[in-house]
């Protein structure tokens, strides 16, 4: 008998069940999973309007030390980013997900490379699948065009968020993922603020192994 | 980690006199306790979420075999290999084999208490693999060659000065004592390791059956680098970590960071599902998931099954008056505080960990703060009962309990004994400056009175006073 069988047998014996796991038991578990039952949600995750969701999202971002800038259209993003980079004394050189190749980067004076970030890149630009207003969380899903490392290796991560993609809760984000994609991607990466540690004397330090800065450029693309 | 739980008493006394540790503990206590209280107060449905979480954990544990099989099927469908290990030795052998089969030279690891349980680092080092801890706290402890003293903040017992010495010795750079600068130095040293490692080892906070996903919750971002860059990702975790759905995870993650550190959200939730796709530039070619029993299944169906709900937040230790005073190392294994007092005897044997369930004041705070409502004091009491019935407690304690139970079963004897004891106690007491009487020294219980005075009884028992008030009441009623 293998370790697998012995472990499973022990679980069944200790639970007062005999024999191997039955097909009926497996089906019952699948049926339970398929319900996708949700637990109680706090008021902060029940914003009824987009305006309220935006306000909640901004409030949580502030608390997490994620800075937020707001623009009206996608074409305004490069100019807003240029302003942010200047303000923070950063070079106008970024790596971005390929989906942004058509934005007017050079007219904003930004040198934008469309490739995955490596350990030497200082600013990574991504968008996100959606964002969660309850906790100010950015939901990034990996794919060949959307590598996670671009959001992780550079010291500054700039994330473009469309207001139309603001959902209330993680439950809503996961339901949206199921609705739009066939399966959960290899990496589902939920980012809430810049990386931090408190491992030396419980003193919070921003910038551990991930970015020192997370900056959101929020596009108001939805009718309010 | 070597088991040293049998030395609890001696180690605890030593830790009480460790000035650096005491300063660290005082600092951590206010941060963890106040931080959690503020974070929990924001959530008006906190109790409802706790109940839901406890129920969903119970549901999975009651059908654990079927959920594990569901997880295995879905993880396998995405290209992961699921391994099963009954013991620490089996788990280490599996992981060492993966490393040697693939000519792994350097492995990076994010914080995993299960890997501490099985002493994985030592096993890999013996096999010639360089293993690098990447969580800042664990990295500090690897340099110091010490086990963690807290499951969430492993180096909570270390002072800045001690860390500065370790970094200076290991990094060969000028000694820094500015915490942000020290953190940056560690980041730069570890960045090279992240980029060059062949294998990344992580634990899992949860396994999601629905999707075959393994999941880590971190703040530093190290688990993300560990699970994304190396060509092999190896997950090592316990069989009890499985949950049903992403919705279940959404519920649990409302509880975990708030309970652990008082954060409304952890910085990174890292869900990894299978290996990289053909045209992806990042992600592992191989994903191995090692599911470990090592004592867990012995709790299934037992009167301690509720312990398997645990989501490893550390709130029970943060709020435990014993932990707050002696720190985590005194507990002598991986899991300190009340959760350790229940888990350690189950995983390593009650004969080795007998002091732990007794190292509790039974104040009940651990149960109050537990996000999944584990009745920890009750479970510790069950271990105490088991120890007593197996004759594992000292003869003096067994005699005292036997005497007490003999009295408690005989009301007249009990009345007489307490009457006598109350008077003896009064006789033993001395008058304090304020006028109240206290007992400074109790023969045979000097361990208790060494550190504190016991308030003296007034000389008569409750029963005596009650009987007297009843008779005077009867007189009053008669006269009306």
Greatest interface by residues involved = A-B, 77 and 102 residues
Rg for CA atoms of chain B: 26 Å
Low-confidence stretches of chain B: none
Helix content of chain B: 40-55%
Structural class of chain A: alpha/beta
Task: Tell me the strand percentage band of chain A.
Answer: 15-25%
By helix and strand content of chain B, what is the structural category?
Answer: alpha/beta
Q: Identify the overall geometry of chain B.
A: elongated
**Fraction of residues in β-strands of chain B:** 5-15%
Quick summary:
The complex is a heterodimer of chains A (224) and B (480). Chain A has 224 residues and is α/β, with parallel strands linked by helices.
Structural overview:
The complex is a heterodimer of chains A (224) and B (480). By secondary structure, chain A is an alpha/beta fold. Chain A contains six helices and twelve strands. In chain A, the strands form three sheets. In chain A, strands 1-12-7-4-2-3 form a six-stranded parallel sheet. The longest helix of chain A has 15 residues, at 50-64. Chain A is elongated and about 70 Å long. Chain B is 51% helix and 11% strand. Chain B is built from 21 helices and 13 strands. In chain B, helix 2 (19-41) crosses helix 12 (246-261), helix 3 packs across helix 12 (246-261) and helix 9 (160-171) packs across helix 10. The longest helix of chain B is centred in the first third of the chain and has 23 residues, at 19-41. The radius of gyration of chain B is 26 Å and the shape is elongated.
